[in-house]
Specification:
The protein has 16 helices and 8 strands. By secondary structure, it is an alpha/beta fold.
Length: 324
């Protein structure tokens, strides 16, 4: 029995040592090869100085109306992620994507990750880059909340809001303490190189390319995914509940047209994190916005803008033509 026990112990130790060795190799590859690839990618657009850092803005099109695309939380490279939608909208509009601090080609920041600060940073970045309102704000996920606060604080600068499966500002729940405590684990996983190594293995590049993404965009998104977790992003994630509550305290201006495009997954599938049904979650949000708010359910996941480009362009044209 003792021999068997010792043999099992040796096997466990060998397995443990092998795992440690592989993680060491993975982290070294991440810190050298993938880091070099990451640093060699040139910004798609323009870097502008904003407060204590720099923010990246990328624009296409020269239309009369300016649509500002604002990314959801955790998207590594929005200027590539929004690529197909930008090109389609850019045939008629001026389209600019704003990459927040800690996202894409933008630097990190020491500024608190409050909704008010996001609004101030969006305004400053756009003005510094030479863009002038009023804007059509098209925010995905949590950026829909930032868009609402922007309109509440500066209604004269917002022509309309088109929410891409936006986070509701009619309901907020504090993030559990254990969940906040787990956030830094994402940084550990990144530093070990697991995202950089596994990303290309589990990604179907042909399927993504069929959605309208270029080969360069796909490659760049995969590289950036391995470097997307930083202190600024973690601060944003840890402050989500407070950010939503900040917006909830301010009424939405009734003169600003509002269209919410909702993913069918979000609208239909129960979410155990919510105290209400998915439909109630959406209807309460629309009620907070006001009786003028419109909505449309589109087939797909939370990232509906990746798979519904033509439909979003069509609905944008109809909405802006009818309401403005």
């Amino acid at each position: 029995m003792r021999r068997i026990g010792r043999k099992l112990l040796r096997i466990v130790l060998w397995v443990f040592a092998a795992i440690v060795f592989l993680l060491l190799i993975s982290s070294m590859v991440h810190a050298t090869y993938f880091r070099q690839r990451f640093e060699n990618i040139e910004p798609y657009g323009e870097l502008v100085e904003v407060f204590d850092g720099s923010m990246h803005l990328y624009s296409v099109g020269e239309g009369e109306k300016t649509i500002v695309l604002l990314p959801g939380m955790g998207v590594g490279l929005p200027s590539a992620d929004f690529g197909p939608l930008m090109r389609a909208l850019g045939e008629k509009y001026t389209v600019v994507v704003v990459e927040y601090f800690g996202v894409g080609f933008s630097s990190t920041t020491e500024r608190p990750r409050s909704s008010a600060n996001y609004v101030e940073e969006i305004r400053t970045a756009l003005a510094t880059a030479g863009f002038r309102g009023p804007y059509v704000l098209m925010g995905h996920s949590i950026s829909s909340a930032y868009s609402e606060l922007y309109a509440s604080l500066h209604p004269e600068e917002v022509e309309a809001i088109i929410s891409l499966d936006g986070t509701s500002t009619a309901l907020s729940a504090p993030m559990p303490a254990f969940a906040k405590a787990l956030l830094p684990i994402a940084r550990v996983q990144q530093d070990l190189g697991l995202t950089s190594l596994l990303g290309p293995l589990v990604t179907n590049a042909d399927a993504i390319g069929s959605l309208g993404y270029t080969t360069q965009e796909i490659q760049d998104m995969l590289v950036f995914a391995g470097f997307s977790v930083n202190r600024t992003l973690l601060a944003q994630m840890g402050n989500v509940s407070e950010s939503i509550e900040e917006v909830m305290r301010v009424p939405f201006p009734p003169q600003v047209p509002y269209l919410k495009l909702i993913a069918s997954d979000t609208y239909e599938k129960p979410n155990p994190m919510l105290p209400v049904t998915p439909i109630e979650y959406q209807l309460q949000h629309l009620e907070r916005i006001g009786g003028h708010a419109q909505y449309k359910v589109l087939e797909g996941t939370h990232f509906l803008y990746q798979t519904n480009v033509d439909k979003i362009v069509q609905l944008t044209d109809l909405f802006l033509a009818s309401r403005l």
